[in-house]
From TrEMBL:
This is Apolipoprotein D. The lineage of its organism: Eukaryota, Metazoa, Chordata, Craniata, Vertebrata. Belongs to the calycin superfamily. Lipocalin family. GO terms for molecular function: lipid binding. Keywords: Disulfide bond, Glycoprotein, Lipid-binding, Pyrrolidone carboxylic acid, Secreted, Signal, Transport. Residues 1-140 form the Lipocalin/cytosolic fatty-acid binding domain.
Amino acid sequence: FMGRWFEVARLPAQFEKGRCMETNFTLTTGNTIRVVSSEIFKGQTRKIEGTGVIEDMKHPAKLGISYSYVLPYSPYWILSTDYVNTALVYSCTDILRLFHVDFAWILSRTRTLPESTVMNAKETFAKNNIDVSRMIDTKQEGCDK
């Protein structure tokens, strides 16, 4: 799963407002992962670095990721991946026990995916009781290579 992933579609997230969203995952120790996400927002590249932890090596698809105080620790579950083309990721968290927030991402090793692949991904989310009706496509045009 390590390496560069491009965001193809997502549930709306307050912290993602730009285009050309991508994330690079690098294993730093046995269970710790360096996570660097970037996007272009208002013509500027914005990056944020976080730390991912595989809490139980028996379940390596269930990570916890923290991006410092901006985005505190939250689960990051890889629901499905073929490692070479696509990955489906889900996260949900309660904020101050007042709000429940969920996130979902369709990731790809390339900036775009065939529409049939995106539809299959959305079906997988739906089978896991994740509402994809709010899912939006991530703009990946005019990005650096």
